[in-house]
## 1
Amino acid sequence: MAKPKKAGSQCVDEVVAALNEVARSRRLRDEWRRGPWTRAVKEALCRWGLDRGYYVCANRVADDFRSEPKKKRPRYEWLFDVTCLVYQGNYLTGVPLVAECEWGNEAEIYDDFQKLLLARAEIRVMVFDAAQISSTDKFGKFEKAAKRFGMGQPGDTYLLAAYTEDRDSYCFKYRLVQTP
């Protein structure tokens, strides 16, 4: 397995690119349903992790990777919607990425985000439907929670991905939050 590196702008940019591919999917735009969107987000993040040699865990996406060698398929869900792990032998040595994807109401979105506060990962990704957040600042409450979390560490990195419709174009808007 690949050795993890500290979350850098290249990794964040790669995750953003993977999510942008999901947002551009014509197949998904034609019919808004949570299940297919969640699956597409998980697939994209799993592909990102597998391409880097990580051990990847996510529920209900393994069939999409059937053509891959068995060792390179995502495993069952483990703690988060998507988890990328690094092992040396039987020892867990790194967690490059954890992600939660929630399309429900505002309370459900914030509940899932709070799981990410507990994670010891290089990048914590929260994907959500911006239309479900009542505030005009779709990212403010997340950012405030990350910065106020008493057990956070300097440099904790959160990538917030708010799915939105902008002038008949569907896309993610992003905010990168790093704790001081």
Note: The longest strand covers residues 91-102.
## 2
Amino acid sequence: MVSDLEINEFKNASSSKDGKKKMHPSKFTLWVAIGSLLMMFAGLTSAYIIKSNREGWTEAEIPKVFWISTAVLIVSSVVLQMALRSFKQRNMSQYRLLMGITLLLGTAFIFLQWTGFQQMWNEQLIRFKGAGAGQFLYVIFGLHALHVVGGLVALVIMFIKAFAGRVKLYSAIPVELMATYWHFVDLLWIYLLIFFIIIN
């Protein structure tokens, strides 16, 4: 007969295996939020397609500085992934350095975006009256920039924590969440840029 001890050991082993399959609650919440953001931007781009077929629609040329900002954002995503790997390897000095570089690149992206919007405004590509692509560029790209700003705030907090004393618990969950969100805004920006290029 099987002893009670063996039965308990089997139950513990089974529960531990099941626990490994479960997604962390924070990760689940993040993916739900990402799904909601995808639906929002899908709705905005769909509205763009519908309105672009109407009479009196005016196209808008995307500033070249947006291409530079795209390259900066992609590099920041790669650097952040390297920072995650460094954290998992417990190389904290390299992790701090890479997080600092990611923070600088994210700030540079926002600055380049602002420069692009100023260029569009000066060239009178954005109109608040009538129908035109400039309005959608302003709203959609502006919303994306706000989400990047939110990511920057999270990066600042994590960067400060990286220097705030000695790390005792090497839980990679916060860094993984940050990396996932940052990769998302990166891919979202690439999608939006390609979308407007193809539609225009």
Note: The CA atoms of residues 64 and 189 lie 15 Å apart.
## 3
Amino acid sequence: MRVGAIRVGAQLPPLEVPVTRTLIVSGAIASRDYQDVHHDAELARKKGSPDIFMNILTTNGLVGRYVTDHLGPRAVLRKVAIRLGAPNYPGDTMTLTGTVTALDGDTAEIRVFGANGIGHHVTGTVTVTLAAGGAA
């Protein structure tokens, strides 16, 4: 996407992410987060969770993917600042939505929300540099 192709207030199309056990466990392994609550359902339940749940680093990666998938391969993430809310458990779907909140030259700020069946999983802001000139 070109710099001039977006505007403040533009909404990114929603992205539905099926939350599977494989996604949760592989995200934890890929980010070297070996906490048992991200891969062992029995130990997660012993610690008070109904099941394993997604870690923040996987969520952070999904938020970044959401923005760059929409803006194109030449978009560069400069900052991803997120806060977690309701856990992402297996069998749910997280729907990511975003709105462009600021533009400054070739830099955009996008407010991102991710909701699942029990509430807001993630809220945050992504700062991204857009491709200048030509298609991304």
Note: The chain is about 25% helix and 35% strand.
## 4
Amino acid sequence: MFLGEYEYRVDSKGRLPLPPKFRQELGLEMILTKGVETCVIGYPLAEWHRVANGLTAKTIASESLRMLNRQMFSSAYPASLDGQGRTALPTKLRQHAQIEDTAIVVGANNYFEIWDPKLWEQAKTSAEEKAYQIIESLEGQQ
């Protein structure tokens, strides 16, 4: 499980350290892809396979599903951790998330997100403002 919020510097080669507890969950390999919001999502390999299997189990006739598959898989990159616990963020993903020299790594249960600090503050504020409404809407779905 990925928990917490951590700020790190991105080095000149686009490498980003990950929190030590995240490294334990990930092992050496992961998948990085574009988030729906302006962020990068990181999945442990087992979780990525679960997500991928869930998408391929559904009918391919749906245009929405085909679009989702294109978006998720065309922007996905295998990644690994170096000896110092860093991963290289592909340029396309850094550009998507508008990440320059600093990034926020955020735990999100079974995956993690990487944000530009300003965009993260905006997303966090929005989530905090909507949290009560979201909780209330979920109460009837249990």
Note: The chain is about 45% helix and 25% strand.
